[in-house]
User: Fold these one by one.
Assistant:
Number 1:
Amino acid sequence: MSEREWHKGTPASCSALILGEVFADGRPPVTISLRLGQRAYEGYQIAAYLEGLLLIRHDPTYVDWSPLFGALYAGLVASGARRVVEIGPTLFATIDKLEKLQRLTSGPPVDDVEYVGVEPSALFRQLADALHPNARIVWADTVTDDAPSVSRCYQATSYAFDSTDDLVVHCARSAFGLHGLWTSADGTTRHVSVMGKRVTLFSVPAFTSAMQSRGYRVDFIQKSRSVHLNDFEYLETWVVFRHFTAEQETRFQTELARVKAVTRDSAVLFATYEDAPLLERADPATTGRVDGSETFDFTSPHTLARLAEWQASLRDA
C-alpha cells in the first residue's frame, strides 16, 4: 500500500516515530532512527496493542481498559451470532478478551466464532494471524453482507467512514454492537486532520435517530471530553446498540450481569446520551507523550534525508 493510499490522498502532515537520544547535560537531543507515515503509525500501535494483549494473557483477571467490554460477550451469546466484525487491528486482542470472558464466567464457548477484520494494513493482518494460529480470522476491505454478527470498534470508524450515515449502514449490518466513537462536541458531523489522515467526528443525534428508526435500541455507557494535540475538541462516546427480541434482551441482561460480577465492572447502560456520565480528561492517545508544545530534533542530516525520501514516495506513487 502506497503512502497516498494509506492517507487517502496527499497528506499535509504525517506520523513520525523517532528513536532518539537525550542527554543529561542539556545538549540538544539527536535522532538515531526515524519512521514516517504508515510505518510510523504501525510501529507505535504494534507496541501498544501487544502490551495490552500480553496483559490479558498473563494477568489472571484483567480483560480490557474500556468500559463494559463484557457487553460484547453478552451480546454475542444473546444474539446467537457466530461472527464478530471489527474495524481496526484491535482484533489482536478481541479474540483473547472474548475467550477469557468465556473462561472466567464458564459461559457458552466461543471457539467456533469467526472474526472478520476490516484492516488495510498487511502488517497488522499478518501479526494478528501469527498471534492467533487457531482462530478463524477472515480479512476484508469492507463488509457488505448481512450475515448474523456482532460488531466492535474503538475509534477506527473515524478513519473508515466519511459520514454518520456511512457509520449507520455499517453498524446496522449487525444485531449487536459495542463501539467507542469519536463524536463532535456540537452534535454535527465534522472532519479534522490527524497525522495526515482525514478523521470523521460523528453526530450522536443523527446516529441515534437513524439506528432507532431501523428498530435498534441504543444505550450509552459514558462519554469523555478530550482535546487533541491538534487543538480540536471531541467526545469519546461509548455506545451499545442492539436489535433483539424480548427473549434475546432478557438473555443479554442475564449474561451481562454474570460478566459484570466476574470482572467487577461497575459501568451501566443509560437510555439517553444526556444521562451518560461525562468524564473530563485528556486524549488517551496522548498518554505517555510529551506536551504538544515541545519539539524534537528534526534538523539532522539523517532526519532531513528520511523526510525527503518520504516526500518523494508521495510523488512517485
Number 2:
Amino acid sequence: MRLNFSVVFVMLVFVSMTMTGCLTPIPMDTRVGPISVKERLSLKVAVFIPTPPGYRIFRSFSSSRSPNNQFPAAGPTEASQDMTANYTEALWPWRRELSNASQEAFSQVFSHVTIVSQLPEAGQFDAVIQPMLTEIHEDYYGGAIMWGELTLAWTLNVVDKNGTKILSKKGVLPPHRKVEVSINERDKGEVASESLALVVKEWAQKLVSSKELRDYATQLNK
C-alpha cells in the first residue's frame, strides 16, 4: 500500500506538512463483501469497539530505499513519529470504518450483531467479540518519486456470556499494494479501506472456522 509524489518540491511540502501536523481528512469507505459461511451461528453477539479505539499510528520516511529496495544508501534521511494524537477520528475515521465493516462482516457469521462502545455486563449477550487494530504504520520512501505503504497490526478476542475466553488471535496485515504518494488523500484512503477490509474479512474467517465457537453455539442452543 503506498502513495504518490513525482516532484521533489511536492515531496518536500508533503513531508513538511505531515510531520508538523498539517493534515487533511482522509476519506474511507470500507466494503468487506461476501463471507463464505455455510450457516450463521445462532448467537447474539456484541462487538466491542471502545472510544477511543486504542490503536496507535506511526509514520516514517526514508530516502534510502525504493519500491524494490534498489536505492543506494547514500546519506539516507529517515524520520519516525507517533502520529496518534494528530489523526483524530474526524481526520482519519478508523473507528467508524471498523464499526461499519465489523457489522457488515459479522452479520454474515452470527444471527444477531450489535456494535457497542462500552463493555457489556455479563450475560447481556451470548458472546462478546473485541476486534482491535493495535498499530497502524505508514511508511514512505523514495527520492524524486515517493512511495507509501500501510501495515496493520491487530488482535481478535472472543469471550462467552460469563467472560470466559473462547478465542484469542493476533496478527499483522503486511502491505498489499503500493501507490505513489499524492497530495490528494484519496489514494491513501482507498489503500486504508482495502487494508481494513482484508483484516475484517480475516477476522470473520477465523470466527467461522473456530471449532470452540461452533461448539459453544451448539451447547448454548441445545
Number 3:
Amino acid sequence: MEGDRAAHLRGQRPSRQSRRSTFLGWVVATCLLTLHAVAAPAADQIKVERRNEVLALTWQDAEDTLQGVITPAEPHPGEPLRLTLSVGNIQGPPFEGGVTVAFSQEGVPGQVTRALKRDAVGWSTEFVPPETGAWDVDVRFLTSRPKALHAKFTVSEPGVPLIVWRTLLGLVGILVLVGVLRALTQREVPVEVPVEPPAGSPAEPSTEAPVDPPADR
C-alpha cells in the first residue's frame, strides 16, 4: 500500500509543478503587457519633439501619416505661433481634403477652432495663446475613415534673451578691466623719510670753504 501511495504522489508532483510554472508565466506575461501599454503612446497621440527652433509633429497608422511643425519651439503668451501640417496616404492618391484644428488649454476643450484648406506648404494657421500652461491641439481629417489626433505643447513666460546676458557679461568684464588699470596707474609711490642722526653723535664737518676776515687798512 505504501509503495502504491508513493508512486501515486510521484505521479502528481509534475502536474503541480506544471501548474505553478504556468501561473508564474501568466503573471510575467501580464506584467509585461501592462508595462508596454503604459509606455506606448495612445494610437491617436501625435509625437512632439523639439528640433532646434521648432516642435516637430509626427504620427502614423496603417493608412495615413501626419507630419508638422510648431514655430517657435518655445511659445509665449501674447505672441503668435504657427502650425503647419502635412497629411498623406500610405496607399492611394494624395490627400487633398480639409483639416480642422482646435487649440485649447488642458481641460478646456475647443477654445479656438480653425477649418484649414491646403495651401502651397500644406495646412497651416497662426494662433496667439493668451496664457501660459499646458495646451492641446486637436487635428481632425477624413480619409478612408475619420481621424481625430491630439498633440500637447507648453506655453511659457519669455526668459531673458541670450544677447542680454552676453551684453551684461561684456559690461562686467569692461568694468573689471577699467578698475584694474586704474589701480595700477594710481598706485602710490612710497616716500623716503630722512633718517635723523642719533643724539650726541659728532656733527659732520662742514663742506663750505672758510671765509677770510677783512684786512685792516
